[in-house]
From TrEMBL:
It comes from the Bacteria. Residues 6-53 form the SpoVT-AbrB domain. It comes from Caldicellulosiruptor saccharolyticus (strain ATCC 43494 / DSM 8903 / Tp8T 6331). Signal peptide: none annotated. This is SpoVT-AbrB domain-containing protein. InterPro entries: SpoVT-AbrB_dom (IPR007159), SpoVT-AbrB_sf (IPR037914). One of its GO terms (molecular function) is DNA binding.
Amino acid sequence: MIHATSKIIGRGQVELPAEIRKIIGGEKIGDSVLFTVLDNGKVVIEVIKKRKLSELGGSLKSSIAFIDLDHETNATKEIWVRKRARETQHDGKSMIRCECNF
C-alpha cells in the first residue's frame, strides 16, 4: 500500500502526487478522474483516459468499408467543397470561387 499526501488549493483543487499518477495511469492532460465516496466515507479515485478518435475506428458496425483516416478526411473535404460550391452558385449563371483551407 502506498500513501501520499497533497493539499487542497484554490477552488477545491487537489494535485495528485506523481507517484500516485504513475500507479493509476493518469499521466496525460485531458484525462478525467472519477471520485467515488463509499458508504464508509473512503474515496476511490479512478482515471478515465482521454481517447483519440482514431482509437474508436471499427467500434461501430457499418456496411461501408473504412479505408483509412487520410482517405476519409480527403473524401469529406471534397464533399464539403462541392456542397459549398453549390451553395454559392448565383441563379445558375455565375459561380463564386470557393476556396477552402484545411
